[in-house]
Amino acid sequence: MLAYPYTLTPDDNGTYLVTFPDIPEAAAVGEDKETAAIEALDGLICALEGYFSDRRTIPTPSENGEQTVVLPALETAKVLLLNEMLAQGVKKAEMARRLDVHMPQIDRLLDLRHNTKIDFIEKAAAQLGKRLNISFT
Fold first, then answer.
1. Are 60 and 2 in contact (CB under 8 A)?
2. One-character DSSP codes across 1-64
3. Does residue 137 sit within a domain?
4. What is the total count of domains within the chain?
């Protein structure tokens, strides 16, 4: 899974600002360090949604820092799928054609907030000549 490092910066109002060096658009705020760490995931996902919307390659995380936010498995798979589609120049319409589905299904496939079935992501990866690999560590 993708683990994005973040920094916590105390703000002058007593809160903590979360920023991500790899995803400069991502930010979150928390009343204390623990709350800021919890809010960090939502801030990261919100920023990543912008990358999906703009069809921009999502940077992979740099070396894990002291503090990281780990994207859940489904969101990680979707990020990797988007990046592969962009690398191969495969547009959403082409993916819909390859999977023999309608465009709304592809929109949901590339929606970080949609609970896509993992087998559909596997099929999409196969259409790109890739294989989804899952392991316990």
1. yes
2. --EEE-EEEE-TTS-EEEE-SS-TT-EEEESSHHHHHHHHHHHHHHHHHHHHHHT-PPPPP-S-
3. no
4. 2
Q: Look at residue 134 and tell me if it is in a domain.
A: no
- pLDDT of residue 49 exceeding 90, the answer is yes
Beta strand extents in 51-103 (DSSP E only): 68-70
CA nearest to 137, candidates 23, 42, 3:
3
Stretch 12-38: mean pLDDT: 94
For residues 126 and 137, give the distance between their C-alpha atoms in angstroms, rounded to a whole number: 24
| Same domain (yes/no): 56, 16 | yes
Q: Does 11 reside within a domain?
A: yes
pTM greater than the 0.90 cutoff: yes
On whether both 22 and 62 belong to a single domain, the answer is: yes
What is the span of the domain harbouring residue 121?
Answer: 73-127
Q: How far is CA 98 from CA 11, 27, 92, 109, 114, in A?
A: 49, 36, 10, 14, 21
* Paired tokens of 127: 């259409």
56 and 33, same domain (yes or no):
yes
